[in-house]
Each structure stands twice: as C-alpha cells, then as structure tokens.
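Hey all, quick one. A colleague (J.T.) asked me to put the EPZ job into the tracker so the inputs and the structure tokens live in one place instead of scattered across chat threads. No bug as far as I know, just bookkeeping. Sequence used:
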Amino acid sequence: MVTITNEEKLEIQGLAGERSLTGAIQVGGAKNAILKVLAGTILFADEVNLFNVPDIEDVRQTIKLLIDLGAKVNQTDKHSYIVDTRNLTQTIIEPIISKNLRASVVLTGPLLARFGRVSFPHPGGCVIGKRPIDLFLSSFEAMGAKVELKNDLYEIVATGGKLRGANIFLKIQSVTVTETLMMAAVLAEGKTVLKNCALEPEIVSLGEFLKKCGAQISGLGTSTIEIEGGDLLLCQGQIYHTIPDRIEAGSFLILASLLAKDVTIADCEPKHLDAVIDFLKSSGVNFEIGDNYIRVRDNNTTSFIANDLKTHEYPGFPTDLQAPMSVFLSQANGQSFIFETIFEGRLNCLESLERMGVKVKILDSHRAIIDGPNELTGKELFSPDLRGGLAYVIAGLLAKGKTNVHNVGYIDRGYENLEERLSVLGADIKRTKI
Ligand code: EPZ
C-alpha cells in the first residue's frame, strides 16, 4: 500500500457547471519521463544535468532512492538538478520507498547492467491493478541473469558479472519494461533486440537523451528497438530538458472543456495528445491548437455528444486519462461505454462519481456505462489513486456545493501545487488540514 498524507484535503466550492475559468495554466515536466531519466543517471560516468523537473512527490522519492544508493544529487533550482552516480556504493534498492513507488522498478535495469547485481522488493505504487513484474524478471533471465526471491527481496545476479544482449519479444507492450530493458541493454555485452515495445513519447525522450550521451540505440518510437551494448555514458555538460507532461496537459484540457470561459493550457505538446483531442472534438468541444498550447473558449455549446472510450497503448487513448474523461462523459448527452483495457482496478472511482449523481453501470472490472448528462452534488471523496484523485477534483469543480477530496498525497505524487495553479484560473479550491 502507498503511505499517503491523510492529514490534508482539498476543499472545493463547485461552480455548478458555470463556465467561468479564465487564464493560462502552464504544464510541467512529464513525471513518467523524468522518473526514468533519473534511473538512467546510473548509466553515466559523469554528472547529469536535468531541467524542467516537476516538483512532485514521485520525483522526491526517486531522488531519495538514488541518494540511498550512494548518488550525489544537487538541486540547483526548484526544477533543476545535477546527479552524480560515480560513487554508487550499493545495489539494494531501499525497500520502504520502492514498495510505494512503481517507477522504482526501472532502477533495476541500470543497476543490474552496471554492477551485475540488484536486489529489490516487489514495487508498489497506485493500486490500479495487480501490476506484476514477470516480464522484467523473465527478460533479465533472457539476458543471462539469475533471479531469486529471498526474504521478500528479489535478488538478481548476472552470470559472469555482466548482462548479455538478447532477442526479447515483450508479450505486453509495457512502458516500464521497455524502458528498463533498453537501459539494461546499454551496458550489456553485445546486441539486444526488443520487439513489441511500447511507443510512449517518454520512452523516445529517454532513448534520445541516452543516444546523445553515447548509447547506441535505434528504432525509438517503433515497436522494435535495437541496442548495441557499450561503455558507461558521458553527459559532458549536455542537459536533459523534461518533455511536457501529456497526462497533466490532458487533465487540464478535460477540465477546460467542461468549465472554461477562456483557458489556455500552455507549455504543452499537443502532438502527444492526438487521441484526447480527437475524442473531445468528436464530443463537440472546440479549441484552438498552437505549437505549444491549446486554448478552450466558451462557445456556448449547450451539450456534449456521448462517446465510447476505449483505453489503448500509445498513441491510443491513455489509461491515465480514463478517470478524468469519465467525469467529462457524465456531462455528455446519452450513453457512453467505457472499456479500460490496460488495468483491472482503474474503474474504482466511478462508485464515488455515482454518489455525486452520475448514472453509472459497472459491468465488470474493465467495462462500464455512463448515462448523461447528470447534475453533480459535492461530496466527501477519497482518492483511490493519482488519476482518480484528479478526476475527483474535476468533479468537485463541476458540482453544486462543496466537495472535500481526501488522500491528497496521491494527487501530490503527480501534480505540482495543483490547488494554487487551479486557483489562478478562478477555481475556489484550497488545501486544508483535516
Ligand atoms: C506506466 O506504468 C505508467 N507509469 C503508468 O502511469 C501508465 O498508466 C502505464 O504505463 C500505462 O500507460 C510510469 O511510467 C511510472 P505497464 P507501467 O507496464 O509501466 C502489465 C500514472 O498515473 N504488466 O505499461 O507499470 C500490467 O499489469 C501511472 O502516471 C505485466 O503483466 O504500466 C498492465 O496490465 C499509473 N507484467 C500492462 O502490463 C509486467 O512485468 C501495462 O502496464 C509488467 C506489466
């Protein structure tokens, strides 16, 4: 289970559907990019410069893990760091933190590749499903490692002290498995070919940076990535500028589609949001799309068109926006069918939306139907996970009356100063002690 702050809540005064939000909201660096680049610093023989790093809990926890391993981390400003892993002293990933942080599993690849061994617990994170790690373990074995489970820790040792390149077909297009194996292969003996890779932009961003620093990687952005093993990488003063967080941008776009008078989502990358933009457009939302912004104005749309939502690996509709989009669909005219194909525990926020007034039918752990439109009434809500928590904030802003969103710690994992940034748009939302 994730230990999250229960001492605080977000107190929201709903707008009762009134489209009054105005102003601009800047999108931060992508959580799911920077967490992996932080892990990748283990592959380097010199200091690594990181910019546009979001000030969120998952980053702070990952940095704690690196420091516990012996890295030197210097925060040069709120969103910039220099990481030096030259004197790493150990290969056991701190269990208490990593049990609460799914992304910690990505550290295993670089550690195993560089030191020939790594020990770690089953990684934790948001409770959105079982989240097995069988593909990590079987792939490491394919690269010549031995896997043992001793007193709740996985102990992985590369036979002969070094991983060997291998041809690996991923039976699931897993994001973190693709990233972890790509990084492990950077220091392995010989060539690794990864087939059926995930295509997320965060993977491309990670791979491009590693290539800039000497890694021999080809096929980024395709389902087959080839890596020629080599020596430790050199940053040589180059910087990694974290790409915009497409899930944060999509979250704000959904909010703006419902409640904007005139809102600009700035510093984002619209081309990473094709599926979300296409979905909202087909539901009748109009927006202006620039190179690095999306602007939503009130165009007196009286109603939105119901729309079937099916999550899919990138570039399909992102599972991380299924919960926020369910709130949008609660306002659409007619029946929307939701099919969450990736995780089996990600529909759990629909029950609370039902308590707020949404007509929901949950068919099974992957499928549900929402009948709209619905008037929402503010309630006491308990975030089940990071993206469910964000969905509750959107629902609270949409509703009549007051909503308290608890388990703010989940939201703080992935959204920097959410309440302050939304208040700038005119939302009545504040963080209070319980
Ligand atoms: C990444 O998780 C993201 N997290 C998730 O974002 C995101 O929802 C997910 O990708 C899908 O896009 C990070 O990048 C830190 P998967 P990941 O492996 O890599 C199964 C957020 O809110 N699987 O792509 O853990 C797994 O059970 C988070 O920011 C295995 O069966 O997801 C799932 O059904 C939530 N065996 C499917 O693959 C394995 O060994 C896809 O999961 C690994 C995964």
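Adding what we noticed when we looked at it: The chain has 14 helices and 24 strands. The pocket of EPZ is lined by residues 31-32, 35, 102-103, 126, 128-136, 172, 174-177, 198, 319-320, 342-343, 386-387, 414 (CB under 6 Å).
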